[in-house]
């Protein structure tokens, strides 16, 4: 009889995060080393509260349907951070591990999640518990790993969001082309905080650069005077302009006051929750300053559907998300402690990848940067090298999503009380939730 596993999710979900979980669960179910697979209900918070959903008892069909079920609604995610000094939280996690014979802890998420997996598992070992801590990568921002792509080529979730933007820009171009006499400028704001992989994906809609498209990444300093001049120059030449900006873009002369920005428990800004967006501020400034042609600028700020739209998911992203989850389970079964499963590109000309591992210590709380050489000298575009990197990730085919009576058939895990592990400890309120 093997030891039990806890798999949990953290941070903003993606279209394919559930497929990584599916890869973990389906693989672990076949391994003698792993007995029961539990899900932490809403991430590490569920572990702290001893809310452990039994995934091993779930219907195989519902686990299979996780493939095309987006986001993290099946058993939840969280933005709760285990911080230094929260000794009661760490003690509680250890108690839960002991009470439920946990030998494997697999956290699916970004670099903060990798830090949690690394910290928790190491602490368990320091206290004499034989626990393997592992990570499954997930982030639409593609900011886990290194900028040389030797540790991580890309993370599951990014390819689907990039595909969303490639298609969104094509459709936005049709809108702008049709309505340009009245609305010559369309400003679009992309997710990604301070890293430019998502807005850069707009170029995948127009690799031959035929659209009147400008892309501003947060990595490139720019002033409101420069943007205004760039857009007016394009308006004089083309009569219209589509402008894509990073949600974390800092525009000199058009700064967002810090008090308007909402931050999560990790300290990261959540721009979609903030009182004002850079996209709307830029649109207002363009209209106040005036355009080189008649009409006004308008603004679109897509919400969280850019990270959870299964219809736009990449088939490549779906496949890779499963195998990276499978790799994490195989690492667990082999007793490999302190690793994150990873995707490495083996052929740049004829896209091929392999699945490997990287020490959690090398990716925990370490943000990958967008390569400066992939930003055009003018600062309003990305290079062909970026297109070569990102193009294979969005795939060529549409995802086949099961439907019943005109509605998506999504996974429905059994979350009745009897499907949760019996609670053996006293109730607990996480330290960060105490008022």
Helix content: 25-40%
Largest sheet: 7 strands, mixed
* Low-confidence runs of at least 5 consecutive residues: none
- Tally of helical segments: 12
N-to-C span: 42 Å
- The SSE order reads EHEHEHHEHEHEHEEHEEHEHHEEHEE
Q: How much beta, percentage-wise? A: 15-25%
**CATH class of the largest domain, anyone?**
Alpha Beta
Arithmetic mean of pLDDT: 93
Spatial strand order of the main sheet:
3-2-1-4-5-12-13
- CATH topology of the largest domain: the name is Rossmann fold
Estimate the global geometry from the Cα principal axes. Answer: elongated
* Structural domain count: 2
Level-2 CATH architecture of the largest domain: 3-Layer(aba) Sandwich
Helix/strand structural class: alpha/beta
- Work out the number of β strands: 15
Radius of gyration: 23 Å
What topology does this entry show?
Layout: E1 3-9, H1 17-28, E2 34-40, H2 44-48, E3 52-54, H3 60-64, H4 87-99, E4 102-109, H5 111-126, E5 132-137, H6 158-179, E6 185-190, H7 197-200, E7 213-216, E8 222-223, H8 224-238, E9 241-246, E10 251-252, H9 278-289, E11 297-300, H10 305-308, H11 315-333, E12 339-347, E13 352-359, H12 384-390, E14 403-404, E15 407-408
Parallel strand pairs: 1-2, 1-4, 4-5, 5-12, 6-9, 6-11, 7-9, 8-10
Antiparallel strand pairs: 2-3, 12-13, 14-15
GO cellular component, one term: cytoplasm
Subunit structure: Homodimer.
InterPro entries: ATP_PFK (IPR022953), PFKA (IPR050929), Phosphofructokinase_dom (IPR000023), PKF_sf (IPR035966), PPi-PFK (IPR011404)
């Amino acid at each position: 009889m093997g030891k039990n596993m806890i798999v949990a999710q953290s941070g903003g979900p993606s279209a394919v995060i559930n497929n990584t979980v599916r890869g973990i669960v389906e693989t672990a179910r076949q391994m003698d080393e792993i007995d029961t697979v539990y899900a932490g209900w809403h991430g590490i918070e569920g572990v702290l509260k001893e809310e452990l959903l039994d995934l091993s008892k779930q219907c195989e069909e519902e686990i299979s349907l996780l493939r095309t079920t987006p986001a993290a609604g099946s058993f939840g995610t969280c933005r709760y951070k285990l911080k230094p000094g929260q000794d009661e939280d760490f003690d509680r996690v250890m108690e839960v591990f002991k009470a439920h014979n946990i030998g494997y802890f697999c956290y699916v998420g970004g670099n903060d999640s990798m830090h949690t997996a690394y910290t928790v598992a190491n602490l368990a070992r320091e206290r004499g518990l034989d626990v393997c801590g592992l990570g499954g990568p997930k982030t639409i921002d593609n900011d886990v790993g290194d900028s040389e792509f030797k540790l991580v080529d890309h993370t599951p979730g990014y390819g689907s969001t990039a595909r969303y933007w490639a298609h969104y820009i094509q459709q936005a171009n049709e809108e702008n082309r049709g309505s340009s006499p009245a609305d010559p400028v369309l400003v679009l704001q992309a997710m990604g905080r301070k890293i430019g992989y998502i807005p850069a994906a707009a170029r995948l809609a127009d690799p031959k650069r035929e659209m009147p498209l400008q892309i501003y990444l947060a990595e490139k300093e720019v002033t409101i005077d420069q943007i205004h001049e760039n857009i007016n120059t394009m308006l004089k030449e083309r009569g219209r302009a589509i402008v894509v900006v990073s949600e974390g873009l800092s525009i000199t002369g058009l700064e967002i006051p810090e008090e308007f920005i909402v931050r999560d428990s990790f300290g990261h800004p959540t721009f979609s929750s903030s009182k004002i967006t850079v996209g709307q501020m830029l649109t207002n400034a363009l209209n106040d300053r005036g355009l080189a042609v008649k009409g006004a600028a308008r603004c679109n700020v897509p919400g969280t559907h850019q990270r959870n739209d299964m219809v736009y998911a990449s088939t490549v992203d779906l496949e890779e998300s499963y195998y990276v989850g499978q790799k994490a389970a195989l690492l667990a079964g082999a007793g490999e402690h302190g690793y994150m499963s990873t995707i490495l590109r083996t052929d740049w000309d004829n896209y091929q990848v392999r699945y490997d591992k990287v020490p959690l210590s090398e990716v925990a709380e370490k943000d990958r940067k967008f390569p400066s050489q992939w930003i055009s000298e003018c600062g309003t575009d990305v290079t062909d090298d970026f297109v070569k990197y990102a193009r294979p990730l969005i795939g060529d085919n549409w995802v086949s999503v099961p439907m019943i009576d005109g509605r998506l058939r999504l996974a429905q895990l059994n979350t009745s009380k009897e499907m949760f592990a019996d609670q053996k400890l006293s109730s607990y309120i996480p330290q960060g939730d105490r008022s």
